Amino acid sequence: MQDAPKIYLITPEHCELSFYASDLAEILDEKEIACLRLGLKSSSEEDIKRHVDCLRDAAHARDVPVLIDTHYLLVEQLGLDGVHLAKPASDLRKVREVIGKDAILGNHCGTSRHEGLTAGEIGVDYVCFGPVEADNLTPEFAEKDLFEWWSEMVEVPIVAEGNISDAHIIALRDVVDFFCFGQEIWATQDKPKTNMDRIFNLIEAL
Q1: How far is CA 158 from its chain centroid?
Q2: How much is the CA Rg of the chain, to the nearest whole Å?
Q3: Is the distance from CB of 101 to CB of 76 less than 8 angstroms?
Q4: Is the pTM of this model over 0.90?
Q5: Is 57 within 8 Å of 81 (Cβ atoms)?
Q6: What is the Cα–Cα distance from 86 to 108, expressed in whole angstroms?
Q7: What residues pair up with 94 in beta bridges, in sequence order?
Q8: Cis ω on the peptide bond leading into residue 157 (within 30° of 0)?
C-alpha cells in the first residue's frame, strides 16, 4: 500500500510578522508538515527578507525545510533550503548550479506532461501539477489521469497544487506524493486549524 501523501504548506499571501511565531508555529507543533514555502505577495526585497527570517526561524526550530518562490539568488543568502519555480523554466540547469546540488529545487509544470518530464530529466526534486480544477483565471487544469500516469511511470515525486477541494483529496490521495495547500487553509482566517484537521483526516483515511 502506498504511503499517505504528505502536506506541503504555502504561507499566506498577506500576514503580520507575528503570524509565524503564533498561528503557524501552533500548526507545526500539532501537524506533520513536510515543507513550507513563503507565499508572501511583495515586490520589496526587505519585506521578503523580514518574512523569510520569521518563517525560517519557526520552521527550522521544528526541522521543517523552507523554500522561497522564484528568487533563487536568495536561497543561500537567507539560509533557506531551496526554491520553487512557479512555471516551467528554461533555466533549471542554471538555477541548480546556483543553489547547489543539496538544495531543494521544485518546478510547477502546469498541466504539461512534457514540461514535467523535462524538469525531471534536468534533476528537480519534485514536479508540481495544477491547478486540479479550473477557475475564471485558469481555464486549464490537471486531470487525474496525469497524476496516475506520472505516479506509475516516473520516480520524481509529484505534487498537486491549486484549487484542491475535499473531493480532490479523496480522488488523488493514492496517486500523489504531496498535496500543496495555501489559500485552502488561510482563506477562512478564523479556521486554519479546523481546515488542517479536516485535510489530515481525509488524507489519513487512505
Answers
A1: 11
A2: 16
A3: no
A4: yes
A5: no
A6: 5
A7: none
A8: no
Cell numbers placing 154: 516516473
Contact in structure between 141 and 132 (CB atoms under 8 Å):
yes
Half-sphere exposure of residue 121, counting CA atoms within 13 Å on the CB side? 8
Look at residue 46 and give its three-state secondary structure.
helix
Separation of alpha carbons 99 and 75, rounded Å: 7
Please check whether residue 172 is in contact with residue 159, taking contact to mean a CB–CB distance below 8 angstroms.
no
* CA–CA separation, 178 and 167 (whole Å): 16
Calpha distance 77→74 (Å, rounded): 5
Cα(163)–Cα(21) distance, rounded to whole angstroms? 27
Work out the angle at residue 173's Cα, subtended by the Cα atoms of residues 172 and 179, and round it to the nearest 5 degrees: 90
Task: Give the span between the Cα atoms of 131 and 58, in whole angstroms.
Answer: 28
CA 101 → CA 74, 76, 94, 158, distances in Å?
16, 12, 11, 19
> 168 with 132: CB under 8 angstroms?
yes
**N residues, the chain:** 206
* Chain segment 89-148, per-residue pLDDT in tens: 789 999 999 999 999 999 999 999 999 999 999 999 999 999 999 888 888 999 999 999
